Amino acid sequence: MKGRQTSIHVDAAQVGYDILIGSGGLDDPASFLRANSAASVAVVVTNDTLAPMYGRRVARSLTSAGWRVETVSLPDGEAYKVWSSVQLILDAMVALRCDRDSMVVALGGGVVGDIAGFAAACFMRGVRHTQVPTSLLAQVDSSVGGKTGINHPQGKNLIGAIHPPCRVVIDLEVLSTLPEREFAAGLAEIIKYGAACDPGFLDWIEANLEGLRKRSTPVLLEAVRRACEIKARIVAVDERELGLRAILNFGHTFAHAIETGLGHGQWLHGEAVGCGMLLAADLSSRMGRIDADLVRRLETIVHAAGLPVHSPPLGIPRYLDLMGMDKKRQGGQIRFVLLDGPGRSSVAAVDLSWVVASLEARVVAGRGATDL
Amino acid sequence: MKGRQTSIHVDAAQVGYDILIGSGGLDDPASFLRANSAASVAVVVTNDTLAPMYGRRVARSLTSAGWRVETVSLPDGEAYKVWSSVQLILDAMVALRCDRDSMVVALGGGVVGDIAGFAAACFMRGVRHTQVPTSLLAQVDSSVGGKTGINHPQGKNLIGAIHPPCRVVIDLEVLSTLPEREFAAGLAEIIKYGAACDPGFLDWIEANLEGLRKRSTPVLLEAVRRACEIKARIVAVDERELGLRAILNFGHTFAHAIETGLGHGQWLHGEAVGCGMLLAADLSSRMGRIDADLVRRLETIVHAAGLPVHSPPLGIPRYLDLMGMDKKRQGGQIRFVLLDGPGRSSVAAVDLSWVVASLEARVVAGRGATDL
To answer: Could you tell me the pTM of the whole model?
Structure first.
């Protein structure tokens, strides 16, 4: 890599790994683990949009690192996050006579990372994978922590594995070509780390929103580094999300309802997370856990990041239904990640009435389907 | 359970688990983990042959242990060890609104155990599974150690996960109905533990072959207990088969060649392992690692267990091809588990010429396709 760069070590339950963050990582053979032998195969999994942009560059770096390189390109889109894509990768690996020494390289956003990571988890009961995230969202969230998987027709990420990567290569230069909307969606997850986990980072984000939106490299380096450090710290303690890791779902219960309710692909995940965080903050305030000031402060930040702040008009019964809050569920409560202050959060069961009040306050009534 | 019983604790890399061995475990609610709540779902995965024999009994025990029980029955046979079977289980789990609190119960032989265990590994990135092995082979081998998976058209067990069970319930009573051939095939794996791992156990097997073949319960209890203890000890050290665990593949390189060469289903896995162990012992003797006496001793034991001792006439070039010993492979050598003495083994690279000599000595020339 060139210029300022940084590296974070993640202690995973299985084997630790390094996250390299900087500029030019894609083109630097030293970013990647070296092949054990001339026969070692690296299978680059990417999609048809990204392959022409970065495929050859990553393949060249891997070749210099000693790998025999082959590429599998999937169609672009969440619709392909299904078993047939995993099977395509596995078939290619079998045809290439891959063995336990082989490595999968996921070159893409969260969808490619999840599919390729799951294929690596399944092939011969687990081979190594390197994550090369090309979206801001994937750089600060899905590429770190070992969650891999595919969707089931009845639910996102229902099928998968915890299979930590052997390396994460974050090249900030790829962010320069991201569409505005997608970049802002990535900022939502960065804001999440500040809001739910780290008051100092929340202050820093607030002070650096200008630099973030201008995609200043030093500012992005700092933001991505701190976000990854927070995630690495949490994952080291709770890789399987038995407790602490759940706070990384701050805003996500509402967000999933928005995404599913609008139909996947209408709003980007990060856009839904932005609104979801504000709903969860409102809920925390109503329950007396935080001041209303903090809700307003977060709303200002989310808005300044270029994200929607009002949730789409799906109708409150539909929201409740999408969050599984029907009377058939045991106890009639649902567990949310709530704020206890700036940068502090915990999980608690919440009564339906509070949720209804927050939805009434923050959901747009009867305007168009989106609010961008 | 009733009568003599025993329990072994396995230290797995993730979370340890107990293997209960005795008579009547299927009908004893105490064999199974208790449900956390009245909503907790246990999905019993079995096959169409075993469901009428044991399905209702296991379901009754689970119900008494507090579970809401549902059953998924797959067609019987290795041909169904494919993704569509896993998908059938996952679809059922989604339809039943299973969550992380749910448990899969694999009621069957190795095929059911592998498929059901893999479904448990994939659902929501891993839920618990209990193994209830109904064949001797599964009781002493596949149900312990966490290997799960399915076949790829180009190779057995190419797709899978290491996902240890939360409990193994071994009911020796189910062995009374096993066909003679299948029972003998299970003995092959028991002999393997003695031959490759434990000289005292090899002596014991030799002294108790009569009781084993008569399926005497106290003799079986001792045999299964010692086999599971050996496996548990090895798996605790090397769950992912990075080193030591490989010795459990004693005889298996030849065995896989026999199975694939004859077409899967012609010989039972254990039958092929019996012959494979004798080939590997012959190889060890030729290389000066053991006396020829030990080869003869093992041949006597394998024969007395009711297993074939002469390998089927596939032709030596075909054997070599099936074991991947072609000139395209790096180095022209292949790694085998070899004996260093009774109950002692290690992995070593072997030259083609030794393998050819052993095949010439032990493969039947030009008789029928099988030698049973």
So the answer is: 0.92
